[in-house]
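Technical note accompanying the year-one report. For the benefit of new consortium partners, we illustrate the data format agreed upon in the data management plan: each record pairs a sequence with a structure-token string. No post-processing was applied to the example shown here.
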Amino acid sequence: MNVSTKQQRIAELAKQQPEMSFTSLNHYLDIDWLREAYRRLRNTSAPGYDGQTVADYGKDLESNLESLLDRAKSGTYFAPPVRRVHIPKGTGQETRPIGIPATEDKLLQRAVAMLLEPIYEQDFMDCSYGFRPRRSAHGALSTLWNECTRGGIKWILDMDISKFFDTLDQAHLRSFLQHRVRDGVITRLIGKWLNAGVLEQGAVRYPEAGTPQGGSSARRSASW
């Protein structure tokens, strides 16, 4: 089966059994799966702490993927710290911290996200748009416009959770994940990403709460 067929199979199981927790997902994770995850990486994405670009990683792709797969499955994979940069937020002086994982870490996160997305896509309400495949801010605005014009809505409440990613309770995130995913390989990898630390101004910190914005799987799964 190709990656798309495997994802469809996962989605069907998740839809048929909404209360089921998946205990065996990592068998889908193979060389073809990692190769597709690499293909989905943006060649222009910024490198992590080690300076390795997506193109550099691809120069010996098959050997790198075989090594990565072995380490991910055996539990010997080391999640490196995330390089943190700050970008302007809005028009004021406030900034938004963005985490930039190393290229290999980014690839493995993308591969895990490809396993999780078919499951959680079945649980989302149709009105949810954040971080979902084939959905965008433009689609959300279009739906909002249609609902407002058809329903005669006169009031819209716009809310934002302040510093949500910075203060996220990691224990709660792990507990939430357990409802749908109990595969040891996958939960172990996510645990390593949560504990990987943040590299900022030459020093590595290990926050007890929060998850860096900018990753592909565990760090983004906070939005799920």
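Partners are asked to follow this layout when depositing records. The radius of gyration is 19 Å.
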